[in-house]
Design brief:
53% strand; eight-stranded antiparallel barrel; alpha+beta
Length: 171
């Protein structure tokens, strides 16, 4: 009986901790390319592009393509401005703008904002600000994105993912 109460306590504690922390998280791996123009003073302008496969913490997955510009100053400080289009397994699209400044193109932490979407609850999603981290090994990128969202938005995302899974099981 003691073990039952311990397990019950852990389950209740886990649910309450999860309930107070609504985050939409994505992880991805993909490839990137860039074309570079270097000025005489050492400043570089890059046209950046990547293609990533991603999964999230709610059971959804999809593809992402991003493109934009990166400016690298002669001291290696960078300014990045990238537009990304994520398409999930159901064909819903979400667009975001990623920005980052720092001392290296080889990886870093930045912020993105969701600017448009085709999901049914897009009015709750647009304007969401997320934190992301990216790292590279040669031309392969590894990303993690964390978006704090409201309980209502979290539930809507989860319901949409679960309803599609149920429909697929019934077919």
């Amino acid at each position: 009986m003691k073990y039952f109460y311990n397990i019950l306590f852990v389950v209740i504690l886990s649910k309450s901790l999860l309930a107070s922390d609504y985050n939409y998280n994505m992880e991805g791996i993909g490839t990137s390319t860039s074309k570079t123009m270097t000025l005489n003073n050492g400043i570089k302008f890059l046209l950046y592009e990547n293609n990533i496969g991603w999964t999230d913490n709610l059971g959804n997955y999809g593809l992402s393509k991003c493109m934009g510009t990166v400016t690298t100053m002669s001291n290696n400080d960078i300014t990045l401005n990238i537009m990304c289009e994520n398409t999930d397994k159901n064909g819903y699209k979400t667009w975001s703008v990623a920005k980052r400044s720092g001392s290296s193109m080889s990886g870093g932490i930045g912020y993105l904002e969701i600017v448009d979407s085709t999901v049914p609850y897009k009015d709750l999603l647009i304007g969401t600000k997320c934190k992301y981290a990216i790292n590279y090994l040669k031309n392969v990128s590894f990303t993690m994105t964390k978006c704090p969202v409201s309980n209502d938005l979290y539930t809507k995302i989860l319901d949409l993912v679960e309803s599609v899974i149920v429909c697929q099981l019934l077919i």
